[in-house]
Amino acid sequence: MSQLLGNAFSAELDWKPKTPTLRTGARYLDSLTADTAVDVWGAEVGEYEGVTADEIFVVLEGKAEVTFHRTGETIVIGPGDIVRLFAGDTDTWRTIETIRKVSFYVPPVESGS
């Protein structure tokens, strides 16, 4: 078994419609423990709201503006930026340039679990 998980720049993402105006995609790479995951994620230009997982990510390429509803803070992120998200928070993403990031996160617990 190789310890190379993949290349974050060339990993093919599984693109799906997130909203009528935005497509996002992800490629699962591995898990660090039974309840954590590592993946590459991307979003095309557009806007959407979502609920966050407990996550730290590094932006590889692209640019986005993220507004955190709980704090009212808005940040603009791009290559090299490292961002911390907190489980259960809501935010609005406005992707300015198609973005790609590597995420280390704890997936949200499915309701009914």
Automatic annotation (TrEMBL):
Gene3D superfamilies: Jelly Rolls. InterPro entries: RmlC-like_jellyroll, RmlC_Cupin_sf, UGlyAH_Cupin_dom. It comes from the Bacteria. Residues 40-102 form the (S)-ureidoglycine aminohydrolase cupin domain. This is (S)-ureidoglycine aminohydrolase cupin domain-containing protein.
